[in-house]
Amino acid sequence: MTAPRTARQIARAELTRAIVNRAREQLAEVGPAALSVRAVSRDLGMASSAVYRYFPSRDALLTALLIACYDELGAAVEKADLNVTDRADLVLRWKRICHAIRDWAVAAPHEYALLYGSPVPGYAAPQDTVAAAGRVPQVMLALAHDAQQAGLEPDVAAMPVPRREHRALAGIRDLTDFTLDDDRLVRSLMAWSNLFGHISLELFGHMHRGVLDYDAHFAHVVDRLAGDLGLA
């Protein structure tokens, strides 16, 4: 049985949450590069020295933001996938996953930009962010594995995967406790980059006046990617 939290632990957790929430609001106001622990302290009516005890630098606060946002997106995607009761309906699961990503991005564009936009000058994400960042790819790779286990094949014939590419993808294989064949792993990576590329183009205004119906376009992209992945 887990011991109940003390009042001190509860207060610390609540204050940490308040700091991170205010930092998220700052993202929309000034962007991640201008994020300031002192400004967050001022907005919360706290002495900056008190906040620095929780987050000793801007980079520490950025790391907490990244983890919080990755976890929030990951939880939304995992829920969308698990809410499909027919686990054999891989196309429906894929659609729910993709639309959950886009829905979150549209609702939280500044957080999406923090995760998938331009790197923040002078900041390098530490190892602490890797587990949270891997939640969405894990769901997508698990879906590809289910297709592989079901013997489903992509719409387009497989292209030989060179040994150099096989070696290049070792880090992605290490993320999972199952084995994907090389062709399916490459297709999954392409689908991941295609999916996020379309969302980024939409949110950052690069398809303005080129694509007149973002909803229709995204739905079609998702359908085509389902075929590329061999989910049907």
Q: Tell me, briefly, the overall form.
A: globular
Radius of gyration: 20 Å
The number of E-state strands comes to: 0
The stretches of 5 or more residues where confidence is low (pLDDT under 50) are none
Order of secondary-structure elements = HHHHHHHHHHHH
Number of helices: 12
Which features characterize this protein?
0% strand; mainly alpha; 66% helix; single chain; 232 residues
Q: Can you describe what's shown?
A:
The protein is mainly alpha-helical and 232 residues long. The protein is 66% helix and 0% strand. The model has no long low-confidence stretch (mean pLDDT 92).
Topology:
Blueprint: H1 7-30, H2 37-43, H3 48-52, H4 58-82, H5 90-107, H6 109-116, H7 130-133, H8 135-149, H9 163-168, H10 170-173, H11 182-203, H12 214-229
Structure at a glance:
The protein has twelve helices and no strands.
